[in-house]
Amino acid sequence: MSRTVTFKGTPMVLAGRPAKIGSRAFNFKLVSQDLKVVKLSDFSGKVKVVNFFPSLDTPVCDLQVKEFNRRASGLSPEVVIIGISKDLPFAQSRFCSFNQIKNEVVLSDYRFDSFGSNYGVRIRELNLLARGSMIIDKSERIRYLQVVSEITHAVDFEEVFSALKSVLESPSAGKRSLWGGVKL
């Protein structure tokens, strides 16, 4: 059975191998705003909150990146917020500079498609990432996953940060998932 999200009510298929709560996080290769390759292993020893979205040039993605950046300012140094889209690094750099995004590492999946494919969140029909968030703990286990069923809607920020609090308080417990609004 294929996994889908909708875009303005139209079903879209998610391609790639799906991430599973409790499983080891798949490595990825992304491109930074200065065109360097960045891997998951570059963030080892930290709790990773991964914020993924279709494009910075949309109002909901704009809101999502700004909200994660705002909330990141009050987090412990053991947590890193990683924003991922298929926007070109140049566009990400302009957006981050203009909006003073300094608390979130915004990276591009345009070159390798390794995040979208390795986590099953690439929208086949659009070749963009779905919208969602995940938490990867210090031992590289996926502890939380939220994929928004309608990509024009925002993530549930309260749910993400509640899950982050659980991960930080109980490093080996609190595995939760929200897929399309349904807890798994």
Model description:
- This protein is α+β, with helices and mostly antiparallel strands.
- It is 23% helix and 30% strand.
- It has helices spanning 59-72, 89-98, 114-118, 157-169, and strands at residues 4-7, 10-15, 29-31, 37-39, 47-52, 79-85, 104-108, 122-123, 128-129, 132-136, 142-147, 176-179, 182-183.
- Strands 7-6-5-10-11-12-13 form a seven-stranded mixed β-sheet. A four-stranded antiparallel β-sheet has the order 1-2-8-9.
- The longest helix has 14 residues, at 59-72.
- The chain is globular.
- Mean pLDDT is 93; it is low at 174-184.
Give the topology, please.
Layout: E1 4-7, E2 10-15, E3 29-31, E4 37-39, E5 47-52, H1 59-72, E6 79-85, H2 89-98, E7 104-108, H3 114-118, E8 122-123, E9 128-129, E10 132-136, E11 142-147, H4 157-169, E12 176-179, E13 182-183
Parallel strand pairs: 5-6, 6-7, 11-12
Antiparallel strand pairs: 1-2, 2-8, 3-4, 5-10, 8-9, 10-11, 12-13
Instruction: Using the 3D structure, state the CATH architecture.
Output: 3-Layer(aba) Sandwich
Note the overall shape.
globular
Q: Would you identify the CATH H-level superfamily?
A: Glutaredoxin
Radius of gyration using CA atoms only: 15 Å
Descriptors for this entry?
184 residues, alpha+beta
